Amino acid sequence: MGYSAELDWNPAALRPGDVLQIQVFRVSELSLSVRVEADGCFSFPQCGEIQAAGRTTREVARELTEQIGKQIANPYVDVFVSAWAPRTVYILGEVNNSGVSLELPTYNPMTALQAISSAGGFTESADLTNVAVLRRDSNQQNLTRLPIDVTALVSQKSGGDEFILHPEDTLIIPKAPPVYVSGLVNNPGVYYIETQRPPLCSELLVRAGSLAIGADADKIQILRTDDEGKRSTLVVSLKTIEESNFKTDLRIQPGDYIVVNNAEQIFVLGQVKTPGPLTLPVNMKITASRAIFLAGGFTPIAKENDILLIRGQKITTIDLKKMYKDPKKLAEDAELQNGDILFVQESFW
User: Fold this and answer.
1) 129-141 burial, b for 16+ CB within 10 Å, e for fewer?
2) 266-346: CATH number
3) Do the domains at 19-83 and 88-173 have one common CATH topology?
4) Between 303 and which of 21, 122, 199, 347 could a Cys-Cys bridge form, CB atoms 3.0 to 4.6 Å apart?
5) What is the pLDDT of residue 15?
6) How does residue 263 score in pLDDT terms, banded at 50, 70 and 90?
7) What percentage of the chain carries pLDDT values higher than 90?
8) 142 Cβ partners below 8 Å, 6+ apart?
9) By C-alpha distance, which of 133, 100, 118 is closest to 9?
10) What are the beta bridge partners of residue 257?
11) In this model, does residue 2 exceed pLDDT 60?
12) For residues 117 and 152, what is the distance between their CA atoms, to the nearest angstrom?
């Protein structure tokens, strides 16, 4: 006859491998040492098989008293454990001392959180949303996976850790999928995030060294795959965050890919000393006169009073020569946008 390992396991309950000392008062021939066998039972003279696993010593003594009482008047039976079988639990995965085994206390329960604490606590890459216990049934055949909501256990609002470990349980703490940050950040690479409180996109980019020069702060891309394998692209604008619009900031999930692309550049072409695209600091506002300065200034044959500003399909002219002569006119200096082209023509006079 077997026994079942119930969820409400009693630490004082007997299990296979325990050695019991049984004493029957004034009946020395019935005072024996027995071992609880793999089926949870032991054999006792004149009583047959006695169920022990899952019971306490008091419960076993009570049954023996009832069985022996059929042959001896008013027997007094005492049962105690002379040697406990190992009550071991195993911890694998993302704890600081992974692969350890712990012996359960003899008479007190051990919770999952206590075991994790004994193993050094969670690592930074632990996935707190998928912690589970692997537990076999009494016949050691069927393996059951029991999920544990560790995020609730470790929160301040939690009522406490109530998941009690059983002997031979294996506590699994998986690694969370990493977050990949690539593109124009100062420290691109692989990052692990706290799954209980995932960081905002802006927070993780700070961790990645912030945006590099030339990055497009307005279109940070987040590539995400859901549980069903469906992929989506989300966009975060750091510009709106800087303008105190925090609703556009998104929380990062394990497995996300964050891509920071080049911003559309401003091109200064024609009669400047270093024509070509301008590489600008993030979110820097630039005017036409400053763009000319960053391009090395005019050449001797530049036509300063007839500079072309090409924006999409529209072309306008800018007279920087007049602005330079009248400081009041500098307030009219055109503010450029990404994608604009300034073309400084050649003067033939």
Assistant:
1) ebbbbebeebeee
2) 3.10.560.10
3) no
4) 347
5) 85
6) confident
7) 26
8) 136
9) 133
10) 180, 223
11) no
12) 16
C-alpha–C-alpha distance, residues 241 and 319, integer Å: 35
List the chain domain ranges.
19-83, 88-173, 179-260, 266-346
16-48 per-residue burial string, b: 16 or more CB within 10 A, e: under 16: bbbebebbbeeeeebeeebebeebbbbebeebe
* Separation between Cα atoms, residue 229 and residue 226, nearest integer Å: 5
Largest CA distance in the chain: 133
Give CATH superfamily name and number for 19-83: wza like domain (3.30.1950.10)
CB-based contact 279:213 (threshold 8 Å)? yes
At 37, the amino acid letter reads E
| Amino acid at residue number 204 | L
- Residue 234 CA to residue 256 CA, distance in Å, equals 10
Q: What is the CATH number of domain 179-260?
A: 3.10.560.10
Q: Tell whether the model's pLDDT for residue 283 goes beyond 50.
A: yes
Question: With contact defined as beta carbons under 8 Å apart, do 238 and 220 qualify?
Answer: yes
Structure letter (DSSP) for residue 321: H
The CA distance from 122 to 149, in Å, is 14
User: Does the pTM of the predicted model rise above 0.85?
Assistant: no
- The residues with which 310 forms a beta bridge, in sequence order, are 315, 341
Specify the pLDDT at position 246. 64
For the chain, where are the alpha helices, taking DSSP H only?
A: 57-68, 112-118, 150-153, 201-207, 238-242, 288-294, 320-325
Predicted pLDDT at 325:
76
pLDDT band at 152, cuts 50/70/90? low
Q: Give the range among 108-117, 200-209, 239-248, 326-335 with minimum mean pLDDT.
A: 239-248
Share of the chain above pLDDT 70, in %: 89
CATH code at 88-173: 3.10.560.10
